Structures are given as C-alpha cells and as structure tokens.
Amino acid sequence: MQPSTDRVSLLIESGAPVLLVRDSTSSAPVVGVFDYNTLNAYLLIAVGIAQPNDEHRTESGSLAQKAAQGKPIPLRDVRDLGRKDPITFLPESANLSRAIETFGRGIHRVLVAKEGPEGSIEVTGLLSQTRLMRFLWDNARNFPVIDQLYSQYLRDLKIGSTNPISINGDRPLAEALALLLDEGVSSLAVLDNGNNVVGNISTTDTKLLTKSSSLPLLRNTCIHFISVILSARGMYEGKDSFPVFHVTPTSTLAHTVAKLVATKSHRMWITDPPMSSGPPTPSLKTASMVPFSTHNSSIGSGGQHHVQHPQATSSDPFQVADASPKTPMITPSGPSISASAWPGASYGEEDLPAVPYEEVWILEGQYDHQEI
Predict the structure, then answer these.
(1) What is the β-pairing status of strands 196-202 and 187-191?
(2) Which of 135-139, 261-265, 336-340, 360-364 has the weakest average pLDDT?
(3) What is the DSSP code string of 31-93?
(4) What is residue 357's three-state secondary structure?
(5) What residues pair up with 123 in beta bridges, in sequence order?
(6) Is the dihedral of CA 183, 185, 187, 191 positive or negative?
(7) 176 secondary structure, DSSP code
(8) How many CA atoms lie within 13 A of 96 on its CB side?
(9) Enclosing H/E stretch for 236
(10) What one-character-per-residue DSSP string does 253-294 give?
(11) Which residue from 64, 73, 111, 372 has the least number of CB within 10 angstroms?
C-alpha cells in the first residue's frame, strides 16, 4: 500500500513533518516534498475513495493499480498529490520578520537556502511554523513587542477565522480524511450528536493507517479512530492522555500559544467559558485544534497570564522515551463507540471562528519589524 515503504517509515520514525524530494541522490535541487497531506491523498486514491482531478487522473489510476498489485511506488509519482504550499525559499540571511510575513500568508514551512555553484540553490535547512513559534515562545523576553501581546485576551485581540471544518463522530473515518483532502486543511474537529467537540483528527494521524491491517479503520467511525489515536499516544508516552481542544475568549495569547507549542498543534477551538450551572466542559465559541497541554507553564483555567517561559531544553510532551520502533496495538474490528458517549465542549449553532497559526503571525507582523 505504501509509496516507497522505507520513505513512509522515515517520515513517521523521524518525527519530521516533511521529507524533501530530490531527483536523485546526487541531485541537489529540491523538486518536491512528501508529507502527511501527500500520504492522506495517496491512501484515499489507492482505496478508491478520492477521485483525482483531471490533471492527475491518469497517473492516479496507475497508482491505484500499482497499490492493488503491491508494486513499489517511487516518491516522484506521489509528490504532487494533495493540496500543497508552493515550495518557498528564504535565504540564510533573511530575518525573522520575513519568515513571519511568509507564514502569515498561509505558508506552513520555508526552505532555508544559500547560493550554490553556478547560481544553483542549495537547501541548508527547513523552518516550520511550529519551530518558529516555539523559538519566539522560548525567547519572548528578548522580543518585547511580542511579549507584550501575551498578556492580552483573545477577545481583545480580535483574532480568529470563521467557518471551522468539523465532522460528526459517528461518520466513517474515510469521510473525515476525504474532508481534510477536499478542504485542504491539516485537521478538523470531531463533534458528538449534541454538537460538542470531543476530539480532533489530523493528517498526521494517517501514520496509523499505513498498514493493510489498519484499513478497516476507514469504515469505522471517527470517534473509534480517536480512541485508537489515544491508545497509540498512551503507549508511546507510557501514560493515558485525553487531549483538550479549546481555549476561551478570556484566555490570554500566552495561554493559547503555550498550548500550541506544547502540543505542536496548528489551531485551537475557542469555547465559551463554563457556566457554574452548566456542563463541566465549556461551550465552543470558536474553532481550532488544541490537544492536551503539558507545557511547564502555570496557566489557570480562565486563561490568566502566569507564564514561566520554558527553557529551550524543556522536554517535548510527545517525545518517545524508547526510540526502538513499536507498532500501536490497533483493533480496527473492535466495537465502535458512539459519539454521544464522549464528553465534550458545546460547539453551538452559529458559525464560529478559529485561532490558527496564521492569525498569530499576522498579529505579530503588525508590530515594528525592527524589534524582531
């Protein structure tokens, strides 16, 4: 099923968000990327769920045939599948302001490059939104303009995008993955029958679907797949965990960024604050992904700013203590859990906003670039 099985394994085991694709081992120029969006698109085409556009219809039909026959598939045949950011380069001499401006336009990663022999471009590194956000968070006190934003409430900053993408937890997983592909997003909210957010599914989670034995999961429910995600995460981390997917309008930007950094998420759901007479979880007032936070910051439930900025060497909450490869114990044929059985935060009836990375970059980019 996998395009170049060793490449898929490299993507998963390295923890890297993307692999750079070159024409050959001796070729320096980067001609494409292979990431989890690519993997998701390939899986859906291979099993006949996604219909490729006219541009890729012929080659995608060939991919599906090769997959059915178990033939190896080179990366060059799949690198253009799915929606992708344009390959964007920044010179090594570029300052952080240029990176922030680029990310504010919706670009998720940039290639850091220098000029090589005969005017060629030599890639020397990769800078992602996640890495830059972590750097600015760890070193906030060195950037007073940004640091002063952290104590402000989300409602006062007026950031957030509307129309978040979501799916009912009782729908098949295949529909969620197809929605990710069609909408060109990296994650979506999973709702129960009461319109409460009970989880999140991202393209990164497709790493649990790369074995043929896992394909029945595509026909099972989204809520069942969330239980698989949590089971795998608990095994890797050595403890049970249940992610938290929300902040509130009265959360500070520091509270929000702390969760983004700790969980390596790209967006968060903004919820209504919990009411004393209401359910224990708040009702959503916006939308975005926020897994559980294990960041070593003191952040109250009301989003008050009591932040202890972590050291650069602080532990990663998703770091694998034992580096030896493991395979999650997945039981795709197990009983499906109804979405109504999961606790969650009420999503509400109106179109609700989200706080993605791009909103933070735009906010920070509005301030004096001389400070960055």
Answers:
(1) antiparallel
(2) 336-340
(3) EEEEEHHHHHHHHHHHTT-SPPPGGGHHHHHHHHHHHHHT----GGGTTT-S--PPP-EEETT
(4) helix
(5) 113
(6) negative
(7) H
(8) 18
(9) helix 222-237
(10) HHHHHHHHHHHT-SEEEEBPPPPTTS-SSPPBSS--------
(11) 64
Q: How far apart are the first and last CA of the chain?
A: 46
Four-CA torsion 164, 165, 166, 172, nearest 10 degrees: 180
Residue 67 CA, chain-centre distance (Å), reads: 26
Do residues 33 and 6 lie in contact, with contact meaning Cβ atoms separated by under 8 Å?
Answer: no
Structural tokens at position 122: 């030599």
Judge whether 162 and 351 are in contact, CB under 8 Å.
yes
Q: What is the pTM of this model?
A: 0.71
Q: How far is CA 41 from CA 8, 94, 205, 369, in A?
A: 14, 33, 13, 38
Closest CA to 63 of 55, 72, 54, 12: 72
The region of weakest confidence among 60-74, 134-148, 225-239, 301-315 is 301-315
Q: Any idea of the CA torsion for 149, 244, 314, 8, to the nearest 10 degrees?
A: -110
Edge-to-edge strand order for the sheet containing 246-247? 246-247, 267-270, 354-356
CA distance 344 to 226: 13
The domains found in the chain, sorted by start residue, are: 1-84 (no CATH), 137-363 (3.10.580.10)
pLDDT confidence bin for 361, thresholds 50/70/90? low
In tens, the pLDDT along 8-47 reads: 888 888 888 888 888 777 666 788 888 898 889 888 888 8
The pair of three-digit structure tokens given for residue 84, joined into one six-digit string = 């992708």
pLDDT, tens digit (0-9, with 9 covering 90-100), for 92-144: 999 999 999 998 888 889 999 988 777 778 888 899 998 999 999 999 889 88
Single out the residue of 296, 299, 298 nearest to residue 310, CA to CA. 296
For the record, the structure tokens of 160 come out as: 């957030």
Rounded-to-integer distance, Cα 54 and Cα 85, Å: 20
According to DSSP, the residues that pair with 197 across neighbouring strands are: 191, 345
